[in-house]
Amino acid sequence: MRVLKCILAGIMTFLLTAITAIGVFAATEDTGFSDVDANAWYADAVIYCRDNGLMSGTSSTAFSPDAFVTRDMLAAIFYRMAGSPAVTGTDNFTDTLDGAWYANAVKWAAEKGIIDGYGNNIFGVGDAVTKEQMLTILWRYAGSPEVDTEKNFADESDISSWANAAVDWADSQNYMPDTENNYFHPKENATRAEVAFIFMKYLSEGKTAEQVPDDESEQKTNVLIAYFSCTGNTEAVAKQLNTILEADVYEIIPEIPYTDADLNYGDDASRTSMEMNDPSARPAISGSVENMEEYDIIFLGYPIWWGQAPKIMNTFVESYDFNGKTIIPFCTSGSSSIGSSADALHDLTEGAAWLDGQRFSTSTTESDLREWVNGLEVGLEIVK
Ligand SMILES: Cc1cc2nc3c(=O)[nH]c(=O)nc-3n(C[C@H](O)[C@H](O)[C@H](O)COP(=O)(O)O)c2cc1C
């Protein structure tokens, strides 16, 4: 009897574990995000926004449904919804960065009057958007439609007067998620789940579905991975990076290849020692990037030499106009971090936005790279 009980208990434990595992797995499989349960009220919205290129995850596995949406992120969603039209020049805001991932979106949204600045040339980059602000922005995008009906939320008096028409309109169109006890909480920050839900409702009502670009290439950011590598470590990372980005790849090849003797850092008289000690050294490059003007984002890979980027990287960045582009450095090394290795290159690329770089080791995996890219917040599309 005692043995039978043990067996039964074992079977029950196994079944419970299996059911739980299947449940968790099913949710992850259905939505593609471990923090978006397939049964969540916003699950369909998250999938809709992801599939239509409006919002992506905050990492390769997470969507962060409860995180707040910032003004620059919201501008980017609207901009993508409009098909990422060409934008020229820069904005007049003092808190935006030329060439940043949101730069075109912010300029476009401000020019269209969809998201204005706060005044005094401040856009409010990084500021969370409240629920009433979010609806007002969408309402303006929709052409400020008039509404006959007037909703009365339990906290109606908390709604700012400038947001009244937008909230009434969104409610009359059923764009908003269900409220609890009829409280709208207008001054609370909008979450990513709420924003995804509202966009899905707005677009799936057939209002502007045609504004979602169906040609993926139209909204794809043009990315170049340019790297220099003598012993293959940086090249391996660059190639791995490209399997997840499917970007264009350019190898910076020295006109005079580096020999083993050249790379001998134990010899003060070796070519690399001499170059790294000479601020004016600019080793010549064989070949060039023909169409640099077409790229928005450039990943720049190099080995660390004496804590710095090799001087051939100076030659490379001095050869092109990086104004308005985003540059993301990465490196490999024996042990040194990327540190300030790219700082000397910053001054040579006027108007470019440099992101913090990352050092990778020879054991870097594809998933390490995917996690890094996902955290970059530059609107990159990960294909794998
Ligand atoms: C001249 C020279 C200097 C180096 N200096 C450093 C250094 O300061 N710190 C470090 O961790 N590794 C240093 N290394 C090691 C390289 O950064 C490392 O082997 C790198 O992964 C090589 O990349 P590659 O195979 O793409 O050429 C140095 C290597 C060379 C040849």
Characterization of the model:
By secondary structure, this protein is of the alpha/beta class. The chain folds into two domains: 31-214, no CATH class; 220-374, Rossmann fold (3-Layer(aba) Sandwich), CATH 3.40.50.360. It contains 13 helices and eight strands. Strands 1, 2, 5, 6, 7 and 8 form a six-stranded parallel beta sheet that branches. Strands 3-4 form a two-stranded antiparallel sheet. Helix 2 (43-51) packs across helix 7 (192-204), helix 3 packs across helix 4 (103-111) and helix 5 crosses helix 6 (164-172). The chain is elongated and about 80 Å long. It starts with a helix and ends in a 10-residue tail after the last helix. Residues 229-235, 263, 265, 272, 303-307, 332-336 line the site of flavin mononucleotide.
Low-confidence spans: pLDDT under 50, at least 5 residues? 11-29, 208-220
Oligomeric state of the chains present here: single chain
Number of strands: 8
Order of helices and strands: HHHHHHHHEHEEHEEHEHEEH
Count of helical regions = 13
**Structural category:** alpha/beta
Q: In percent, how much strand structure appears in the residues?
A: 5-15%
Q: Specify the overall morphology.
A: elongated
